[in-house]
Q: What sequence folds into this?
């Protein structure tokens, strides 16, 4: 059954490498949030596969912790980006890379700058 | 190392294999798809189905009720939190205009005025957009993104990097 475990682990490894690639070159913060979420889910799946193949139930509480952390982390970053939405101007949106996708092609409305 | 010698073990092996394949698919889709919503569509596949299959496979393989209940807890937690997570990330993505609107089939929020401006009695901005988002030519807001090859990540990143510098400032 080593062939089976090699196949399963290589699928999980390639999937996590691809998600890590998107995490590295994602153009915006939300792409990185989605990539981090996918990466943590794949890590959870890998730990569960290890626990199932080795019949090792001591890994199982780690699964609960990792899935909780995935949810809390992505919701926290999403709320953080949503809070930046209310106060951000064009200048710091350049710095954080969080500018709107069509930024720079159309001038902002003149009445909107008085926030 | 492994002992697969009965029928439930082979069923568990099949479930683990399908779950791992879903994880591979998710990584591929997250890397290849063009915008945030499509990447979420790809990335949420192992979040529900893959984790569910792998947890069932693990519950078959592992003996003892405590491990089974904990795996069931993880599966139920994924089922509960995945819609919440997807809702929040996609809402912020739409408001920050990380959505490629030229790829959308239906955009029901185009004509919806924002709530704050309705309360203020003003004419609403188009769509569920932030108040500080640059508005202007709404009919063709993302001209340069149309030229991107959807899988060309480096070009997309460079386009996002040099877009704010050449635009007019208000």
A:
């Amino acid at each position: 059954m080593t062939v089976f475990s090699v196949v399963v682990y290589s699928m999980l490894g390639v999937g996590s490498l691809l998600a890590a690639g998107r995490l590295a070159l994602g153009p915006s913060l939300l792409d990185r949030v989605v990539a981090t979420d996918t990466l943590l889910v794949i890590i959870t799946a890998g730990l569960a596969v290890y626990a199932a193949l080795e019949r090792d139930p001591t890994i199982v509480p780690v699964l609960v912790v990792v899935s909780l952390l995935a949810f809390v982390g992505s919701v926290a970053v999403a709320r953080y980006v949503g809070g930046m939405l209310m106060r951000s101007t064009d200048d710091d949106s350049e710095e954080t890379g969080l500018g709107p996708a069509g930024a720079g092609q159309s001038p902002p409305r003149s009445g909107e700058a008085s926030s | 190392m492994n002992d697969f010698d009965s029928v439930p073990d082979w069923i568990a092996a099949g479930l683990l294999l399908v779950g791992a394949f879903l994880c591979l698919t998710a990584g591929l889709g997250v890397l290849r798809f063009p915008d945030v919503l499509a990447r979420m569509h790809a990335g949420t596949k192992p979040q529900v189905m893959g984790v569910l299959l792998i947890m069932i496979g693990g519950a078959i393989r592992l003996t003892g009720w405590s491990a089974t209940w904990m795996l069931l807890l993880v599966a139920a937690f994924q089922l509960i939190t995945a819609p919440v997570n997807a809702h929040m990330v996609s809402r912020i993505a739409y408001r920050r205009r990380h959505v490629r609107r030229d790829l959308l089939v239906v955009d029901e929020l185009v004509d919806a005025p924002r709530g704050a401006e309705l309360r203020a009695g003003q004419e609403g901005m188009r769509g569920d957009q932030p108040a500080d988002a640059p508005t202007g030519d709404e009919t063709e807001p993302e001209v340069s993104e149309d030229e991107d090859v959807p899988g060309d990540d480096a070009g997309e990143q460079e386009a996002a990097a040099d877009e704010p510098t050449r635009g007019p400032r208000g």
Summary: Confidence is low (pLDDT under 50) at residues 87-115 of chain A.
